[in-house]
Amino acid sequence: MAKVSQSLQGMTDIEFPEVNIWQTLEARAREVMLQYDFREIRTPIVEMASVYLHSLGDTSEIVQKQMYAFETRGGKQVCLRPEGTAGVMRYVSNNQQELQDARLYYMGPMFRAERPQAGRKRQFHQLGVECIGSTSARQDAEVIALQAALFKAWNLDGVQFQLNTRGSMEDFSKILEGLRSELMPVTDDLCDDCRHRMDNNVLRVLDCKNPGCKKVVEELSPITTWMDPASVAYFEEVLATLDTFGVDYVVNPLLVRGLDYYQHSIWEVTSNRIGAQDALSGGGRYAMKANGKTIEGVGFGIGMERVLMALAEETSKAFSREKDPLMVLVGQNEAAQTANLTLLGELRGQGYRVRMDLNGKSMKAQMKGAGRQQARWVLIRGESELDAGTIQLRDMESGEQKEVAMADLVGEISGLV
Ligand code: HAM
């Protein structure tokens, strides 16, 4: 049993200085969203379980094994959201305007009862986008380009966009039938899971990791074989528009995605910097029933924990340093600390990030504290500086220190920050 002092397995505290990286990623993401004219939506973390049960697909792993679902005291079946799309569809379905043209994004925690490992948490965070109201292939491409713009804003390299199409909802039954007929004679070569999938989830045979299944899959016709030519043309237009936008991608004909609501374009982004759980994000075009309406949209969800893992060390370091460098005031004695209290207010009044010890610590302890707090500059005053009307300005990165007249201090600092 977990001790009360521990967090639950697969659920972690995000603490300083890592939390600074999150804040930088979020701030940069908001700028990109503004450029693409997407607005934020904050939906509840707890939803009626039915919002998810009927939209993700009965055979999806999330619905079968991973939902945190429970009954409230009032007898309602609810769940912690395992993803964002279905909740956003519930919201959109109640709003006529949004049904016609919604460009929405969200950031926040999602919950899946998975076996925790590196890059796989039970509480994780997604940055998601949903774009509703357009059925154009160009819209799919714009949403993919938005995702590429985010990765660029995050200095995230070594990523690969893998794209595929699942065809239209009408194509779907033909694809399943075609796949089944080709697989039927070779069922014995499939793993137990895939034999089971033949009946209820045959598409997932395509991305099975089992070597025997991979061999079988190599011999299958591509799923475009069973699609209407219009669906193939739709996908080609997505790719052509991505070329126009200058977004790099590869087509992966075996990519299928694990949620039932997808149709037409689907994609995943992988990173060569993270291990087995290499999908940074997944997305696609979908048609989902909510409130008796079928809503079509296109969107994606980015796993933020995985993005943090995939950032180059240099970038993580840069992002963990906060935008406004910290100044710490240090005083040798009571008189200096009293004078520093006044300076503290003055500098804050001018918008600087500044703090000082308020607990009567020794000068040595104050200096140590400044190091721990990752101060960029330390302003030090002793008796002689007080007498001379000066202060020592120490650059904590270079270790250089110089004496500055109090009258010149603000000018000096504004040249630094
Ligand atoms: P998803 O592929 O289930 O899609 O999740 C998107 C991303 O969330 C994954 O690529 C991964 O980075 C991250 N993720 C998923 N599960 C975990 C986990 N247990 N721990 C850490 N990260 C995880 C969706 O959720 C769709 N709603 C995306 C979408 C939006 N499609 C259209 N609109």
Which strands sit side by side, in order, in the main sheet?
A: 1-5-6-11-10-9-7-8
Number of domains: 2
Q: End-to-end span in angstroms?
A: 50 Å
CATH homology superfamily of the largest domain: Bira Bifunctional Protein, Domain 2
Which whole number gives the mean pLDDT?
A: 94
Identify the bound ligands: histidyl-adenosine monophosphate
Q: State the secondary-structure class.
A: alpha+beta
Please provide the count of β strands.
16
Low-confidence stretches: none
Helix content: 25-40%
What is the rounded Rg? 27 Å
Number of helices: 16
Quote the beta fraction: 15-25%
Give the overall silhouette.
elongated
CATH-level-2 architecture of the largest domain: 2-Layer Sandwich
CATH topology of the largest domain: BirA Bifunctional Protein, domain 2
| Sheet with most strands | 8 strands, mixed
Oligomeric state of shown chains: single chain
Please tell me about this protein's structure.
This protein is α+β, with helices and mostly antiparallel strands and 417 residues long. It folds into two domains: 18-161 and 255-318, Bira Bifunctional Protein, Domain 2 (BirA Bifunctional Protein, domain 2, 2-Layer Sandwich), CATH 3.30.930; 327-416, 3-Layer(aba) Sandwich (Rossmann fold), CATH 3.40.50.800. Helix content is 39%, strand content 24%. The chain has 16 helices and 16 strands. The strands form three sheets. The protein has an eight-stranded mixed β-sheet. A five-stranded mixed β-sheet has the order 13-12-14-15-16. Helix 1 runs antiparallel to helix 6 (137-153), helix 1 crosses helix 12 and helix 6 (137-153) runs parallel beside helix 10 (229-245). It starts with 17 loop residues before the first helix and ends with a helix. The mean pLDDT is 94. The chain binds histidyl-adenosine monophosphate. Histidyl-adenosine monophosphate binds at residues 83-85, 112, 114, 119-121, 124, 126, 128, 130, 279-284, 286, 299-301, 303, 305-306.
